[in-house]
């Protein structure tokens, strides 16, 4: 290949690269035509969505708190308390037709409580699947950010003084690894994991000398 042929080959390669870049740029700009702005099924949210039908009926008409607890793993009072904590962070601009904080929190709790997919949540609440994904992601992050300060606070100087100086538990024991809980039978798996941990902490291997005094007397040992 002589010099002229090499230059021609380089030019063709450059032109091909430019053509690919132009095609990719144009393809990114082409938006997929949406068939619906809001699906007809989701337009019936206030008439058919579980938030406005099933959940409201549990609290007002049938007053079935047992089913409400199974639905959210919370009592109504617990839900209201949690809503007071996280509600301000879940509030969106109402002018855009956004869902209310309690609506968002309820969908997230139901998703966490039941063995169901986001698609099932979307159908039941008459909300788009993409919207459900965004809501659950945002809400779980808010729950973590706020509850972490309450459940896992950084100990103060006074709190450190109350920590018992006792015997550490040995980790080289027969405690089985809890492992990762999958979507199938997650509730059963959680119960088994809880029972394994409970049995370990009351066994001779997992218990520490002062824990029974603390449990029975209700005070820390000297």
Proportion of residues in helical segments: 55-70%
Order of helices and strands: HHHHHHHHHHH
Largest sheet: none
Number of helices: 11
Whole-number average pLDDT?
Answer: 72
| Rg calc | 28 Å
Terminal Cα separation, in Å? 91 Å
Percent strand: under 5%
Q: What global shape is seen?
A: extended
Organism: Rhamnusium bicolor
Transmembrane segments: 7-25
Protein name: Transposase Helix-turn-helix domain-containing protein
Keywords: Membrane, Transmembrane, Transmembrane helix
Short description:
The protein has eleven helices and no strands.
Q: What is the element layout, followed by pairings?
A:
Blueprint: H1 3-29, H2 45-48, H3 54-61, H4 65-72, H5 76-90, H6 101-113, H7 118-125, H8 129-151, H9 157-161, H10 186-201, H11 211-217
Helix pairs in contact: 5-6, 5-8, 6-8, 7-8
Organism: Rhamnusium bicolor
Transmembrane segments: 7-25
Protein name: Transposase Helix-turn-helix domain-containing protein
Describe the structure.
The protein is mainly alpha-helical and 222 residues long. The radius of gyration is 28 Å and the shape is extended. The mean pLDDT is 72. Among the domains are: 42-151, no CATH class; 178-222, no CATH class. Helix 5 packs across helix 6 (101-113). The chain has helices spanning 3-29, 45-48, 54-61, 65-72, 76-90, 101-113, 118-125, 129-151, 157-161, 186-201, 211-217. It comes from Rhamnusium bicolor.
């Amino acid at each position: 290949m002589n010099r002229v042929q090499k230059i021609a080959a380089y030019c063709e390669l450059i032109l091909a690269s430019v053509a690919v870049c132009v095609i990719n740029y144009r393809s990114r700009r082409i938006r997929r035509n949406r068939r619906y702005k809001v699906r007809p099924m989701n337009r019936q949210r206030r008439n058919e969505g579980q938030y406005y039908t099933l959940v409201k009926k549990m609290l007002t008409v049938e007053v079935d708190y047992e089913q409400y607890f199974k639905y959210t793993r919370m009592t109504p009072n617990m839900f209201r308390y949690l809503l007071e904590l996280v509600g301000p962070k879940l509030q969106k601009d109402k002018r855009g037709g956004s869902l209310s904080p309690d609506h968002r929190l309820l969908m997230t709790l139901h998703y966490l409580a039941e063995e169901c997919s986001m698609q099932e949540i979307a159908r039941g609440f008459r909300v788009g699947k993409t919207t459900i994904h965004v809501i659950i992601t945002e809400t779980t992050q808010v729950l973590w950010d706020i509850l972490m300060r309450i459940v896992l606070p950084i100990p103060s100087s006074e709190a450190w003084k109350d920590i018992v100086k006792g015997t550490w538990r040995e980790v080289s024991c027969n405690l089985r690894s809890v492992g990762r809980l999958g979507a199938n039978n997650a509730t059963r798996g959680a119960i088994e994991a809880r029972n394994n941990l409970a049995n370990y902490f009351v066994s001779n291997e997992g218990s520490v000398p002062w824990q029974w005094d603390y449990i029975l007397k209700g005070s820390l040992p000297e």
